[in-house]
């Protein structure tokens, strides 16, 4: 028997989601979770992969850690080798100063991005990025639409 009407709940969820814009991204590294908020309302949650050394804040280029702190989405790349990516404003002045005191470069180019083909099957089995936050390719497309440039991102331990 053919289904003549799509599931109205799924349709309603899609319509509601398409009308929202996130104003905060909360990343909880220890839980491997990223939540998008609009006001006080959580609108979407994602299971994430992090840098291969996820504990502790990023202190220098090449440490394979995901930064901790408050940043902003300041650019986007539709041609990322990991499908699509949203650039995080790391390093800020505090990050630069911390790295300078260590005599190191703070690094940069930290993104929220998809998996690309290489990591699609193992996305949540282990942390595999160089410090970025990874979601599936389908999820980064959704995030791309929900998160405008200028959105605040808080990355917690």
3D structure, described in words:
It is a single chain. Helix content is 20%, strand content 26%. It has a single domain (20-156), classed as L,D-transpeptidase catalytic domain-like (Beta Barrel), CATH 2.40.440. The protein contains 3 helices and 8 strands. It has an 8-stranded mixed beta sheet with strand order 3-2-1-8-4-5-6-7, with helices on one face. It is α+β, with helices and mostly antiparallel strands. It is globular, with a radius of gyration of 17 Å. Strand 4 and strand 5 (85-88) form a beta hairpin.
CATH class: Mainly Beta
Alpha carbon gap, first and last residue: 51 Å
- Structural class given helices, strands, pairing? alpha+beta
Number of domains: 1
CATH-assigned homologous superfamily: L,D-transpeptidase catalytic domain-like
Relevant terms:
single chain; 157 residues; alpha+beta; L,D-transpeptidase catalytic domain-like
What is the topological layout?
Layout: H1 8-19, E1 24-28, E2 33-38, E3 41-47, E4 69-77, E5 85-88, H2 93-102, E6 111-113, E7 133-134, H3 137-146, E8 152-156
Parallel strand pairs: 1-8, 6-7
Antiparallel strand pairs: 1-2, 2-3, 4-5, 4-8, 5-6
How would you concisely characterize the structure shown here?
By secondary structure, this protein is an alpha+beta fold.
